[in-house]
Amino acid sequence: MNPLGTVHSRFIIRTHVSAMIFRTTAAVRPSRTASRRALIAIAFAALCAAPVAHAQEPGFTLADAAAIARRQHPLLTAAGGRRQVATGTARQESALPNPVFEWRKENLRSTLDPDEFVSVGLPLDLYGRRMVLRSVSGLVDSRARSDSSTTARDVEYDVARAYWRAALAFSLYDATVTQRLAFDTIAR
Hints:
Strand content: 5-15%
Number of strands: 2
Helix content: 55-70%
Structural class: mainly alpha
Distance between the termini: 25 Å
Strand order of the largest sheet: 1-2
Radius of gyration: 30 Å
């Protein structure tokens, strides 16, 4: 018996996996090492949860594996951080400059007369750089959001692939046990 859950139809498996493949984009993966570590952790969690799932009727499903990955995968945390950095940087670069207020006193302890200066200044953007950055900041936010969602889809695809590989391993193990029992029966 497959502890990861019962599969009713091969067509459903192929359709589900192919739909996940088509939902992902061909983006550059941020970190292969972190992705591999997370997949190993998820596969280990699936294998550790297998005896518990075997005792219960529903089993460890692909949705459970995807939910664990969404909560704990380091690439998703990094993608969220990159999105916040990109959005914050665009907002900072497009902000209007702050006025400068300066109050100085000079020659306080010398024999010369003390001087007091007060100056107020406002930096001017003569090239219009900040206005262009203001108009583009919405595009930066949408690009950062799409990069983050691409990373999420890559993680979901990797989780699904690891899940189905683990399910295949359990099925092969069950087939091997059945085959060994059949050989034992034939040998007697």
